[in-house]
Amino acid sequence: MYKKIDLRTLSRVLIVAVATALALVACAEYKRAPLWIYGDGLQDLACSGFVRITRDEAGINVSYTDSEGIDQVYRGLMRLRTTEVPTMIDAPMPDFPEPPTTLDENGVEKYKIGIIYDWPNGAKARRFNDRWVPVKIPNDICN
């Protein structure tokens, strides 16, 4: 009733199965989120996991998890472009363009060069060559 399979035949079948599975997976392109995704009027943000891009006779297919944590799949796109989301961005700058007087009423320097200062409105900057320069903060666009 059942045919006995020898070890050599079994190993050949397994090799063919593994090679086929690898070939199917190799047809897809994977990119690590976070990424901006643009294509055929689509503009979205992939925030977690991987973005999977495949091509078939209908066009380009893309699947990813968006900023709300919802899995998205788009099929048949004619154009697709992805852009990396920077992990660090410039903090908002304070409202005044130049540092106020650098000495307080006792003649002590108020703002020291290189120190990062925070403002109540969320702005951050450091003094460098008598001007304010932006500081880098983590990009929380996906949080």
Give an overview of the whole structure.
It is a single chain. The protein starts with 6 loop residues before the first helix and ends in a 5-residue tail after the last strand. The protein has 143 residues and is mainly beta. It is elongated, with a radius of gyration of 27 Å. Strands 1, 2, 3, 4, 5 and 6 form a 6-stranded antiparallel β-sheet that branches. The mean pLDDT is 84. The longest helix is centred in the N-terminal third of the chain and has 20 residues, at 7-26. The protein is 14% helix and 43% strand. A hairpin with a 2-residue loop joins β9 (124-128) and β10. The protein folds into 2 domains: 28-84, no CATH class; 88-138, no CATH class.
Topology:
Blueprint: H1 7-26, E1 29-32, E2 35-39, E3 42-56, E4 59-66, E5 71-77, E6 81-84, E7 88-90, E8 116-118, E9 124-128, E10 131-134, E11 136-138
Antiparallel strand pairs: 1-3, 2-3, 2-6, 3-4, 4-5, 7-11, 8-9, 9-10
Task: Provide a concise account of the structure shown.
This protein is mainly beta and 143 residues long.
